[in-house]
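Quick one before lunch.
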Amino acid sequence: MRVALINPKFRLPIDTRTSPHLALAYLGAVSERRGDEVRVYDADVEEQSFQDFLREFKPHLAGITTNTPQVKQSWRTAAAIKDVMDIPVVLGGPHVSVVSEELDYESLRQPQVDLVVRGEGEGPWIEISDIVEGFLRDQPEFAAAKLMDPALDLFRETRGVSYKTSDGQLHRNADATPIADLDSLPWPAYHLFKMNKYTNLQPATDAIPGERSFSILTSRGCPYRCTFCSQSIMPIKWRARSYDNVIEEWRHLVKDLGALEIGVLDDSANIRKQRLVQLADGLIAEKLNHVPWIFVNGIRANLADYEMLRKLKQAGLKRTAFGVETGDEQMIIKIDKHVDHDTIRQAFKNAKAAGIETIGFFIIGLPGDTRETMQKTIDFAIELDPMIANFSMMTPYPGTIVYEQVKQNGRFLVQDWEDYVFFDAKARYEMGDLSAELMEDMYRKAYRQFYWRPRYVMRAMQRKDFWTRFGRNARIAYRTIVPRKEKNDLRKAMESSL
Ligand code: B12
Ligand code: SF4
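Model of the iron/sulfur cluster complex:
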């Protein structure tokens, strides 16, 4: 069976990086293992028009990934498919996985969407593929409407799936069980991507060509539930791949694919410190530690002791991020971060002492924030002095506790899912005394105060990649403050791309 996996066009308002979509790489890998002919259409890098792609490949089944700001583009993509051929269209990914707001049904109400996969996708995707292929055998003339016939109700037992029968009825099956054995999954199918079209993973970093920069996921899930985080999408149960499985994939990336940089995409890679120490020992023993790697999403500061970090440094860890979020002692309790500021201070000290570059993630405009607490966040960022401070404007994503808090006690300023990007100086909500004006003011101040320090500028100028990326850095600095016009242009470009 021919299967198309699609990442709809979605570039951030700033000149963003593009990296191969790991979810599609996993789904492509399980489809190939099933015996399907798979093609990935990543609209961010593709030169062929989408219509030409469809006419040439003639898929029997299409899967589209979607996060929140991308969802409307996913619907447009679904419509573009149905304009050309009547094949089943499946949506999956973070946005449709949030059922508290019935976002699976929201997508199914779009006439062009037949099925939605909620949460971890590989199992349901393969079950859907089996059903579609079984149906195809008996149906010389394929039509999604027949597949979705309520009399057949073919998907009634597929867990993790919501679907629409052709009488318009919406159905939501029970959740799928989390994949217990992550080693049972094949490695991501990078060969399905046009690797030379991508950039490397982290902003303002080394000039490594995209085809030499890879991601790896050594564990899935996160046992924490910070109030602002969309973590509810993945199962709460934290699961890790085995030592052998991770080392073998790492070897494959380095030796077979020539990786020059690896980004570890785990949400919380250091939940079990001993596991990381073992992996580090393995990377050193297997002589894979010459390739630098980074923790893209950060690791938990309360589980980052010096010994572990030193070992990770020896194993090639170049940079790690830590989620700090706020500099106020009460706010950090309120957001359920389960870490205190002294522990965070120590984690940064440990990382720096181990020779690891640091990134701090901070949020401006958490519910309950005041001018004083936000100033404390800026001051704390300056005290910690990471190599990169990333200040995000609080964006209440559906499915998070913050979203519920705003719904009950505040006022959303965003009317459209496409406004849910957060590389943008615009406030997304107001609540009590926390006005949009105040948040926007403090957001700009955060970047100004952190980055325009003589000490920071001097240090940055000494780094080679500051100069190799000077143009890009300057553009980002400017667009972080003045992004609006660009975003409107972006929207127009997205809409006209199909
Ligand atoms: C790497 C990453 C990025 C990278 C690369 C994105 C990419 N092209 O892959 C970059 C830095 C560009 C990025 C940017 C953004 N990201 Co991001 N990102 C991630 C991160 C850390 C890992 C994603 C990943 O690869 N996961 C591993 C794969 C295997 O899991 P998965 O993506 O969830 O996919 C599984 C299921 O969702 C499902 N599935 C997914 N797609 C499909 C499609 C089909 C057909 C099916 C059947 C199933 C299915 O099956 C997959 C396999 O089990 C996640 C956090 C996380 N833990 O997922 C955030 C996350 C996805 N990002 C998030 C956000 C908000 C963004 C931004 C919007 C932020 C912003 N700046 O405004 C932008 C959007 C950029 C864009 N162009 O779309 C949120 C999404 C929340 C939401 N409701 O949409 C997440 C969940 C972070 C969080 N905890 O809040 N991101
Ligand atoms: S912010 Fe990090 S620790 Fe908190 S829930 Fe999200 S992934 Fe887990």
